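Entry type: protein chain
Record version: 2
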Amino acid sequence: RVDRGGVTTMPATLTALDRLQAARTQLVLDEPFFGVLALRLELTEDASQPTMWVDGVRLGYAPAFVDQISAKQLVGVVAHEVLHCANGHLWRRGGRDRLKWNIACDFAINPVLCEAGFALPAGVLMSSRFAGKSAEWIFDRLETTVIQGRLVASGGPGEGGCDVRDGVADGSVDAASAVAWEQAVAQAAQAAHN
């Protein structure tokens, strides 16, 4: 914001980083559970990826993706990435295929976010067949196909397939990070209920 003679104006264009910081602030104000956890993640520009990713420490983002979605959708996507950490998706994968695991995790958390009133971009992985199920349960039943070098998942009868749009980074998450996130989630839940 720029103060010009007592009148506060917004800059003509916001950078992707500005928009992400505003989305996190909105989460802190409106959804403290998600907001407090989002503040734990270092915002890291990564134009090599198509959308966003998380590794438990950083929230990576492609500026072009951030710039193409609405402010409400950006808040929803940040909450989505936070849920990957809060649900332990980074350390529950074990030896499972990384891309298929990410798809299963997305199918598990997107309905939760929509039920909570978050807006998500068009084309996110969503299926009534998987609503309320764990990522492990979904993974075991998920049908995937590689089409033109991209992994595509089928949601179920009558529901279209969707491309993977985000990612859980393929870094190693140590036990200390897992415990730290478990403690942070408990603290955020307590703070949100106060």
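Comment: Residues 155-171 have pLDDT under 50 and may be disordered.
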